[in-house]
Design brief:
53% of the residues lie in helices and 12% in strands. It has 17 helices and 10 strands. The strands form 3 sheets. Strands 2-1-4-5 form a 4-stranded mixed sheet, with no helix packed on it. A 4-stranded antiparallel sheet has the order 6-7-3-8, sandwiched between helices. The chain has a two-stranded antiparallel sheet with strand order 9-10. Helix 1 crosses helix 3 (79-97) and helix 13 runs antiparallel to helix 14.
């Protein structure tokens, strides 16, 4: 605990919490108020941490949409508790990270999802064409506190620190002004949760390593690559037992033993032609979600200017491109570029509102009179019309100048 409250550690924690941003917890305190609050109250808080009497505040319950449908529950700690959790994380992570499996990639310094994808690609290229796709039933909501604390106590000898971590685990959840007690789970939303998940699931990793399996894990997303369906079914049965020892259950409807090319992983899928290398692609589900998001941003009823739409689109597409650049799909990305700019041309046509304005604007941008007149007379047929005259009136370079990134290399 003395390392947690050491000044340099606290300054790094404060900087990181501010970088991560995030909204207020149940007390309404925003990040901009944290520094002033700490100047006034830190000596008291520090003493409580050192004697082991500090009590975290309940977390604020938030529900967000999951990519595959349904809702994910987040527990938003107060900014003070996020700061303390970050300080704890910075002490514990160096203790644990070097002991974790090389096949674990989620929420670890210097590792990322692309590393997990490349490792999976190597396994498939090496002939392991079958995968055991494991989905843990509501993992973050079902973590058993006693099991987790037992694993932590093997390495952490400071009872004050153990008590503080348990306090964060059992802190209540406020929803609609009512605080409910928590008996299991580690709420997503705090800095400590990812490390605690890795501590617990490292036991599964170590057992898989002991048995010589080829596997990749990213947080609670686990894939084991095998050479046949029969081998995969044996591994699946053993994993049910392994997770059961941690008092966790495998979701039987979402988990499966299947050909690797039919199962997506972290938004990617894999494809291997006979005698060729295994290629990484964007999964169909990820492409569908991307198009849905672009449709939302480029909705014609938003009442926003083209500059505003382009700014929001830029922020989303840059992140999407950076994540999925690993996929070798230049033709698909080129078609997506065309589709995105088609959506933007529809917005511009909508902004022109009437045929007379549309005709004048297109003529001023070099569209021949006959083509501008034809397009303006069908101004209500947004999709069909925008693909013709507007390609000349609003070339791709126009959207480049607005800052809309291209997905294709």
């Amino acid at each position: 605990m003395e390392l947690v409250v050491e000044r340099d550690n606290l300054m790094r924690a404060l900087k990181r919490v501010k970088q991560n941003k995030g909204g207020p917890g149940i007390d309404g305190m925003i990040l901009g108020e944290l520094s002033v609050y700490l100047k006034q109250e830190w000596l008291r808080i520090r003493e409580e941490l050192l004697v082991g009497s500090y009590e975290p505040s309940p977390v604020l319950r938030r529900l967000i949409d999951k990519p595959g449908g349904g809702k994910r529950e987040l527990g938003i700690p107060t900014v003070l508790d996020r700061f303390i959790q970050q300080a704890v994380l910075q002490v514990l992570q160096p203790m644990y990270d070097g002991t974790f499996s090389e096949h674990s990639h989620g929420f670890r310094p210097g590792r990322r999802a692309h590393d997990a994808i490349r490792e999976a690609q190597r396994y498939i290229q090496g002939g392991r064409q079958w995968v055991v796709d494991v989905d843990v039933e509501k993992f973050f909501d079902r973590v058993n506190h006693d099991v987790l604390m037992g694993r932590l106590a093997r390495k952490i000898g400071d009872r004050r620190l153990l008590r503080l971590i348990r306090s964060y685990l059992v802190a209540g959840v406020m929803d609609g002004g009512v605080v409910a007690e928590r008996y299991e789970g580690t709420p997503q939303g705090g800095p400590l949760s990812p490390l605690l998940a890795n501590v617990l699931l490292d036991e599964v990793d170590k057992e898989l390593e002991k048995r010589g399996h080829a596997f990749v894990r990213y947080a609670d997303d686990l894939r084991v690559f095998v050479g046949s369906q029969r081998a995969g079914e044996r591994v699946m049965r053993s994993l049910v037992v392994l997770f059961g020892k941690l008092r966790l259950q495998i979701n039987k409807t979402k988990s499966a033993v299947d050909r690797a090319r039919y199962r997506s992983f972290l938004g990617f899928s894999f494809w291997t032609a006979p005698g060729m290398i295994t290629r990484v692609r964007v999964s169909k589900q990820s492409l569908a979600r991307m198009k849905d998001r672009v449709r939302q941003i480029t909705s014609r009823t938003g009442g926003r200017s083209m500059v505003q739409v382009a700014k929001e689109l830029r922020q989303y597409l840059l992140g999407w491109r950076n994540y999925f650049r690993l996929a070798g799909m230049s033709r698909t990305f080129s078609r997506l570029d065309e589709w995105v700019r088609h959506r933007l041309r529809m917005i511009q046509l909508k902004h022109w509102k009437c045929g007379r304005t549309a005709y004048r604007e297109m003529r001023s941008r070099g569209v021949p009179s006959w083509l501008a007149q034809k397009a303006a007379s069908n101004v209500s047929s947004w999709w069909r019309t925008s693909a013709k005259a507007l390609n000349t009136a609003l070339p791709n370079t126009y959207f480049d100048e607005l800052g809309v990134p291209r997905l294709a290399p």
